[in-house]
């Protein structure tokens, strides 16, 4: 009983830490682009309170997550890839639901939806 009470108190005092543990690890997603090409993404996430860090790897290479945030079950972050000397910024936002992560990737005024699965 004493352990259960302590656990409930910790969940009340540290709710962000409890939610952050749900995202840590490796997630994979495939995205079919408008031209029919498939883009494979591997996301490696680590949450520290409401701060989200990690990397995104794809055919374009690997890049660190920037401005990453996690709040309860919602995340947002940006990734900048360098392609032939040009920077390509991708903004992501999404929602965690169990072992799935629904993401929207925005590049300029275009957006693409994908579902990542926990590995």
Quick synopsis:
This protein has 119 residues and is of the alpha+beta class. The protein has 2 helices and 9 strands. An 8-stranded antiparallel beta barrel has the order 1-2-3-5-6-7-8-9.
Structure description:
The chain is α+β, with helices and mostly antiparallel strands and 119 residues long. It has one domain (2-118): Beta Barrel (Lipocalin). The protein is built from 2 helices and 9 strands, in the order ααβββββββββ. An 8-stranded antiparallel β-barrel has the order 1-2-3-5-6-7-8-9. β3 and β4 (61-64) form a beta hairpin. The longest helix is centred in the first third of the chain and has 12 residues, at 2-13. The radius of gyration is 16 Å and the shape is globular. It starts with a helix and ends with a strand. Mean pLDDT is 85; it is low at 15-21.
Topology:
Layout (H helix, E strand, L loop, with lengths): L1 H12 L1 H6 L4 E8 L5 E11 L2 E8 L2 E4 L1 E6 L2 E10 L2 E12 L2 E8 L2 E9 L1
Antiparallel strand pairs: 1-2, 1-9, 2-3, 3-4, 3-5, 5-6, 6-7, 7-8, 8-9
